UniProtKB/TrEMBL annotation:
Gene3D superfamilies: NAD(P)-binding Rossmann-like Domain, UDP-galactose 4-epimerase, domain 1. InterPro entries: NAD(P)-bd_dom, NAD(P)-bd_dom_sf, NmrA-type_oxidoreductase. It comes from Dyadobacter jiangsuensis. Transmembrane segments: none annotated. This is NAD(P)H dehydrogenase (Quinone). Residues 6-186 form the NAD(P)-binding domain. PANTHER family: NMRA-LIKE DOMAIN-CONTAINING PROTEIN, QUINONE OXIDOREDUCTASE 2. The lineage of its organism: Bacteria, Pseudomonadati, Bacteroidota, Cytophagia, Cytophagales.
Length: 285
């Protein structure tokens, strides 16, 4: 049995749809905290198990009988996220899960600026020590984060973001999902770690130029605002300190070059070139 956590989320659902092309629905366990959020899969033959990352017992029930697990990283932040991911690993070990693919992040190092990198670093270590066989997907930023980073610039191309000249090897979430489905239905896991990236890196000045080309925005340009002004802006939008710190840490990590890395792993898992930023942006206009 193959299980996916966060199965109704963007990455989980996309992986589920690729998985259904590669294996029988009876082999799949979709783990969600609200079954209604996967109602379009009711009657599809997949097993829908309800569990909350906050509740160890529910995770143990959901993972009973599972051989292979896709552990999608938590969407919470800080200590809560660390505790949630730890519970999933402990539940998997207790239930005798043999193999786990975990969606980590690029550059999960001690020195990383990105707050989530420290959660991923901790979860990777727990999995390595657990005795389960593993594959780590150290994902770069999704294409789909671009509109989130640049906000109103989607309407005029004027990007205000504190990333300096930092570059990002953006990758398509859909491609990552397809690659995950290939791993989940592929050979025995080999305790391997992969940087999952697009084929090129882009600065936000490059993204602005793409918007100029694709959307025809004549004013398109990147302005490198100060990290402090960015953080204040986020607080002004109603984010709390932890959330604002999280998003600011993302920009800090880009500025520090922690996402400025490409690797052919994603292409290897897909057996074709990954989708590019250009194609993604074209699809939005
Ligand atoms: N590389 C990147 O650029 C990037 C960008 C964004 C996120 N991420 C990471 O990648 C993960 C997957 O991305 P995504 O786009 O699929 O995120 P998403 O759409 O926000 O999905 C998150 C999933 O986690 C589930 N979840 C949240 N809290 C839970 C809890 N307490 N118990 C059980 N399930 C819970 C959500 O369920 P509900 O619908 O019930 O909340 C949802 O299914 C994220 O969680 C985050 O760690 C990476």
């Amino acid at each position: 049995m193959i299980a996916i956590t966060g199965a109704n989320g963007n990455l989980g659902k996309a992986t589920l749809s690729f998985l259904l092309k590669k294996t029988q629905p009876e082999n799949i366990v979709a783990i969600v905290r609200d079954a209604d959020k996967l109602s379009d899969y009711a009657g599809s033959g997949i097993h829908i198990h309800v569990a909350d990352y906050e509740n160890q017992e529910s995770l143990e029930q959901a993972l009973t009988g599972v051989h292979r697990l896709l552990q999608i990283s938590a969407s919470a932040t800080g200590i809560r996220a660390m505790a949630q991911e730890t519970r999933v690993v402990h539940a998997a070990v207790k239930c005798g899960v043999k193999e786990v693919v975990y969606t980590s992040t690029l550059f999960p190092e001690e020195s990383a600026h990105f707050h989530a990198a420290h959660i991923c670093r901790n979860t990777e270590a727990l999995i390595r020590q657990s005795g389960m066989r593993y594959v780590f997907f150290r994902n770069s930023m999704y294409h789909e984060t671009i509109p989130l980073f640049i906000g109103e610039a989607m309407g005029d191309g004027r990007i205000f973001y504190p990333s300096g000249t930092g570059r990002v090897s953006f990758a398509s979430r859909k491609d990552i999902a397809e690659a995950l489905a290939n791993v989940l239905t592929g050979p025995a896991f080999d305790n391997s770690t992969h940087d999952i990236t697009g084929s090129e890196t882009f600065s936000f000045a490059d993204v602005a130029l793409k918007l100029k080309d694709i959307a025809g925005y004549q004013e398109a340009a990147h302005t490198d605002i100060s990290p402090e002004d960015y953080r204040k802006g986020l607080l002004g939008f109603g984010l709390d300190e932890e959330e604002a710190g999280f998003y600011a840490s993302m920009a800090d990590s880009i500025r520090a070059g922690e996402f400025d890395k490409t690797h052919p792993s994603l292409e290897g898992f897909l057996g074709r070139k990954p989708l590019g930023v250009q194609e993604y942006l074209r699809g939005l206009f």
